[in-house]
Write a structure and sequence with these properties.
single chain, about 210 residues, mainly alpha, 7 helices, about 70% helix
Length: about 210
């Protein structure tokens, strides 16, 4: 069998169930709700300066990160739209929070730059894959773990600035989660780059057999 890149969709991390074309499913509605939480958080944090409410929005967005995927598998409602919405919501939450936190000096710009550099690396890798007919690589558990840690760290770091009586403990916990999340985020990025390089090498090899 040829090892040239298939033009069909790449396998996803959804078990043995093939994704369907459903739109109005419970998991997709949860993902849409998470997307709506991004501008709400930015308004509460940067405009209204309602930090406690912003903590609540962030906490809900972070804790529901795994809920939509779990429900999709449980109810057999895995869909192509859901596979796009879930990582999109994750990235928008992370990027929006980074921008807002940097603007109000909750996190240093160096931390933000490190995360944004990883996103840039991944965008370049995805661009290369698309040139050879591949879609995004399957989501890896290391990347999901990194995203979970970061989404858990952000509300705790914000809580440290909003609640002075627990600021020390919250800051220590938040930064522990954030640094572990950053490290795993780069580990997952490196794994995606290695995977992309292998696919490109296989595509460039004439007559390579699987």
């Amino acid at each position: 069998m040829s090892r040239r890149p298939a033009r069909a969709e790449q396998p996803r991390d959804t078990g043995d169930e093939a994704p369907g074309n459903q739109v109005l499913t419970l998991p997709n509605l949860i993902s849409f709700g998470r997307l709506l939480g991004v501008p709400l958080f930015l308004y509460l944090f940067l405009v209204a300066r309602a930090d406690v409410a912003a903590v609540v929005v962030l906490a809900i967005g972070g804790t529901t990160d795994w809920v939509d995927g779990w429900i999709a598998r449980r109810l057999r409602q895995v869909s192509r739209l859901g596979e796009l919405l879930d990582p999109l919501a994750d990235r928008l939450y992370i990027l929006a929070t980074l921008v807002a936190f940097t603007a109000r000096e909750v996190v240093p710009w160096q931390f933000t730059a490190a995360l944004l550099a990883r996103e840039l690396l991944l965008l370049v890798s995805l661009g290369v894959l698309r040139r050879y007919g591949y879609g995004p690589p399957p989501v890896h558990y290391v990347g999901k773990t990194a995203t979970f840690l970061l989404l858990a760290a952000f509300p705790v770091l914000l809580l440290a600035t909003a609640a002075t009586d627990i600021a020390t403990a919250a800051s220590a916990i938040g930064w522990a989660l954030a640094w572990w999340g950053l490290v795993l985020y780069w580990v997952a990025g490196g794994m995606y780059v290695v995977q992309a390089a292998r696919l490109v090498r296989a595509a460039r090899t004439p007559g390579a057999a699987a």
